[in-house]
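Figure 2 data, in text form.
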Amino acid sequence: MSKSFKNATIGGGCFWCIEAVYKRLNGVVSVRSGFSGGRIKNPTYREVCTGRTGHAEVCDIQYNPEQVTFKDILQVFWEVHDPTTLNRQGKDVGTHYRSVVFVHDEEQRITAEKMKAKLEKTVFKDPVVTEITDFTNFYPAEDYHNDYYDIHTEEPYCRIVIQPKVEKFNRIFTSQLKKKAED
């Protein structure tokens, strides 16, 4: 990792949804699906899905802060998932689908907490249940989870769940989309 790049680690339900959106955001260098916040090292997807490991499905986003800020990354985060539903996104239910921001430093913590407080007052009628907690580790998911939406676009889950989030992102963040050659 270049020293000029930074990381954001977030969970907003299924990591396939989060990855599909952030891969399209200008300034994002890479997005890896995986797990954070749990009690065991190197968990498998199957183990995490039991809900017994304490991990959340997350994406580790490497970004160029000269092109996109952590605040920009969080603005996308708040738009593409529902931060008011505890341990679920749509029909995906379980603690591993929780809304969470794993902060890498104090600046990220302050930014996330301020944005969350403002959203609770101005945007959402229900409380924002997004956890804001210290980043401790990231465990990559199995390889077949990477680029899932782009590889499996025609599968029902991709069409019904992920595609609307990608379309919403494209519509709201038009000026922040990567150029086609970068996709």
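Caption note: The chain has six helices and eight strands.
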